[in-house]
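Exercise 7.
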Amino acid sequence: MKSLSTLFSKALRVLSMLIMLVVLVNSGCNSPQTNAGKSDENPTQKSIVKYAHGFNILDRGDGSFRLLIFNPEIPKEVFFSCTLVPNNSTVKLNNEELILQVPIDSVAVFSATQLSSMAILNELDRVVGVSEARYITNPVMKQRIEEGKAVELGNNGAFFVERTLALHPQVIFYSPYLLNEAHPLAASHQIMIPFLDFLETNPLGRAEWIKFTALFFGQLPKADSLFNTMVQSYDSLKKLATSVAYRPTVMSDKYFADQWYMPGGQSYMAMMIADAGGDYLWKDDPHNASIPLNLETVLSKASHADFWRIVGSYDGDPSYEKLGSENEFYSHFDAFKKRKVLFCDSRKTGYFEEGPLQPQIQLADLIHAFHPELLPDYKPVYYKLIP
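Solution. The predicted structure, written as tokens, is:
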């Protein structure tokens, strides 16, 4: 397993290849080099993004929108931008950006959250390419694959250039963290759009990427309405949790490959635990990525933690017997001894597919565990205490 700080640097190397790709596509997209060091945001254009930091959408006021994707390590530095206009639009543009008419007809998606956002927007019929088809759980998408309406363009880290050329999706959404160096499909000269939702540290910011997806399908009003509902629910739950007098201490994740990758103090999970009225033991850590720790360090700091949060899966239901068999030291943690392990079964819940787009439900689950008196009749969806 690699830390996200390592993945950041690899993501940037991948995205630097986008410059060459754009030239090859010859679509007029702004090169990262021409935008480096400036925000490229027009103050006369209204931003419709409130929480996410990895992208912005500017309403030009004439039915068209500008999409800006930012460098994750240099805030506000734009390395990709394009303008999206409605089909049959008479909008006149005086720039050299890539211009896409929306809704687009076909798309390939290479991550679970991309696919889930398409499902929420009822746009799965436009998905013609996927990767890792065996892991897809959405029944509609599985049927499309079985019927040959969508094909696999990548599997086990390998991507199929010739198949992509034959399919020729109008746009490819891809997540750079899946790659080692340059994306193999860059050679197919398709329009490839980096989808960096996984870098967002604010739960609402990550969920707001549904607007990013919606932009390509003329579905911004629907996405905006869905997102506003998420925000209202999340903020209401967060406010509820601020009333607690006691915040239980929380640790996270497990020991793997001689390292314990603990979410950094500025991470997505750290923020959600705090919003749920928990006291994350690594809250003072300055990193927004996971930090590698040795087992002794975690034992020293978290042996008396009230709760232990884990995302994973087992054959059958999770149990303390199964968890304890993985590492003899797990039984030394108070959360293990007192049956306070909060487990999310990623296989049964679709956590990685749907969880990022349901931050309000994740938050409610955590509040229910940490402070059951606040949500006495609530039925958790993702996180449940191992019985």
